[in-house]
Amino acid sequence: MTAPAPIRSIVIVGGGTAGWMAAAALTRLIPAGVAVTLVESEEIGTVGVGEATIPPIRSFNALLGIDEADFLAATQGTIKLGIEFVNWTRDRHRYVHPFGEFGFDIEGVKFHQVWRKLHAAGRAEAIDAYNVCARAMQAGRYQPPVTDPGSILSRMAHAYQFDAGLYAKYLRAYAEDRGVVRIEGKVAHVPLRAEDGFIEAVVLEGDRRIEGELFLDCTGFRALLIEQTLHTGWESWAHWLQCDRAVAVPSASPGPEITPFTRATAHKAGWQWRIPLQHRVGNGHVYCSADISDDQARETLLAHLDGAPLRDPFILRFEAGRRKRAWEKNCIALGLSSGFLEPLESTSIHLIQSGIHKLMALLPDTGFSHVERDEYNRLTDLQMEQVRDFIILHYHANQRSDGDLWRRMREMAIPDTLRRKLDLFRGRGRFFRYEDELFAESSWIAVLLGQGILPQGWDPLADAFDDDKLAFSLSRIHEMFARAAQAMPRHEDWLARNAPARTPA
After folding, report:
1. Cα gap 221→260, rounded to integer Å
2. Please, are residues 340 and 221 in contact by the beta-carbon 8 Å criterion?
3. CA gap 86, 90 in Å, rounded
4. What is the 3-state secondary structure (H, E, C) of 134-165?
5. Mean pLDDT, residues 272-293 taken together
6. Is 110 a catalytic residue?
7. How far apart are CA 264 and CA 374, in angstroms?
8. What does the pLDDT look like over 135-153, one tens digit per residue?
9. What is the spatial distance between Cα 128 and Cα 132, in angstroms, rounded to a whole number?
10. What average pLDDT does the structure give for the chain?
11. 184 C-beta neighbours (distance < 10 Å), count
12. What phi-psi label fits residue 200: left (phi over 0), alpha (psi between -120 and 50 degrees) or beta?
């Protein structure tokens, strides 16, 4: 038998963040003789409101060899050390989900376990006092993490906040410089092969035909290939994640200070994001249309801006859920075409990145074995479910007394996968990650405790330590982390200091 030939042509349909991230990553295949073509139309807009990310974005940029200073300047980007949650448990309550680790484990015992023991005795501060990213967020400061495990700065992690449209433009230049061919045009027809139903080509208006062997659907909510053509089906999660709209608007920066974090503020029928960039602030109100009208949502958003709006607000409609198969036949859906989870934990861009990494690891040949396809779909489904559960946690563990949305979310039945995590943590603060979960244990700990889920007890291994010695250790960590944060430059000063030098005209 003759082995199937390697893939030699990949067609990406749709630009935006998903399309150009895929194109940039696939330039690594071009030296091997693979043609990468991206088809997009300037007439078709992109969603373009996803501006906050999580730490793995740094590995994607590193894969491409992108210089951080150049990237931040080109995308008007800022540093993100975590998310501040306001009013999520109840009004006037705040907590943070910082990146990086809490404290230091002690002789194999998790830090949060010894913290819980001392906190129950009134001998420990709130958990975020022992996270250097949280301390830096509170101080509005930033300094890059280091790899030296002896340094406190090794306990840090960071992501970025940037203009998604500028990021796509930046990656487009990167990809085209390395051989990706962009074709302007709107897809009019998608013919299928008669013998197996695979996509044969995309035909543009004017009858231009673009043939390929592997097709990537980056057409956003339209899902032109994966759904409109291949009809893979949709699995709705709207019964768990009931917000179905967002109204978004950029605003002027309120002053010179640029906070190194995203803020999520709960309102009566949803929540509002605030993402500071170098040139403006991104804002949006995610809400449930069953509980508030579009006009009311718009008014709520505008009333809570801290700078003048820079354009008229625009509304997005969506449904939480996923395609039943992200890879079908010779088509892989990336980004919004594969599914949607609201941007509460800034996972939209990461799910694109994750899909690209899985594609590169499971790149098929022209035989399109079901083995690679099934594993890709299994891993995609698993990660979507894990992120879904993490987002549901924020809604479910609320104590708000206003609004039917919060009551429904508090009382609803939650997925068994999340229920098991909650039950285990409520007992002795135990937590286990499964199947390479996206969010680290420290992230779950921050949100569980921040949402008011306090374990009844702690791991008995923590009882092996003398309380006075533990209290001394925690006070030292508290002091060291506070000093480290205060020694950092202001975030906006660091950005200015590390901006790339401009060549004189």
Report:
1. 30
2. yes
3. 8
4. HHHHHHCECCCCCCCCCCHHHHCCCEEECCHH
5. 97
6. no
7. 36
8. 999 999 999 999 998 899 9
9. 8
10. 95
11. 11
12. alpha
Which residues, listed in sequence order, are joined to residue 13 by a DSSP beta bridge? 39, 217
| Cβ-based burial of 62 (10 A; exposed 0-12, middle 13-18, buried ≥19) | exposed
3-state helix/strand/coil string of 250-272: EECCCCCCCCCCEEEEEECCEEE
Strand partners, 273: 264, 284
Q: Which residues contact 236 (CB under 8 A, 6 or more apart)?
A: 319, 320, 321
83, β-bridge pairs: 97, 262
- From the list 291, 244, 321, 265, the residue with the least C-alpha distance to 408 is 291
Residue 401: count other Cβ atoms within 10 Å of its Cβ: 9
How many helices and strands, by DSSP H and E, does the chain display?
14, 21
Compute the distance between CA of residue 86 and CA of residue 92 in angstroms, rounded to an integer.
7
Lowest mean pLDDT among 43-52, 128-137, 482-491: 43-52
Residue 51 banded pLDDT, cuts 50, 70, 90? confident
Active-site option among 80, 329, 358, 421: 80
Burial of 65 (0-12, 13-18, 19+ CB in 10 A): exposed
- How much is the pLDDT for 50? 55
Q: Residue 163: is its pLDDT beyond 70?
A: yes
What pLDDT score was predicted for residue 224?
98
Distance CA 173, CA 168 (A): 9
Do 78 and 161 contact (CB within 8 A), yes or no? yes
Four-CA torsion 456, 460, 461, 466, nearest 10 degrees: 90
Query: Which tokens belong to 273?
Result: 């994001």
Inter-residue contact 364 to 252 (CB < 8 Å): no
Place of tokens 């987002």: 391
Distances from the Cα of 282 to the Cαs of 89, 260, 266, 447, in angstroms? 24, 14, 16, 23
Q: What is the mean pLDDT of residues 83-90?
A: 96
435: left (phi over 0), alpha (psi -120 to 50) or beta: left
Tokens 């508290």 locate to 478
* Alpha helices (H) in 321-460, listed in sequence order: 348-361, 370-396, 404-411, 416-428, 441-450
Q: How far apart are CA 93 and CA 448, in angstroms?
A: 14
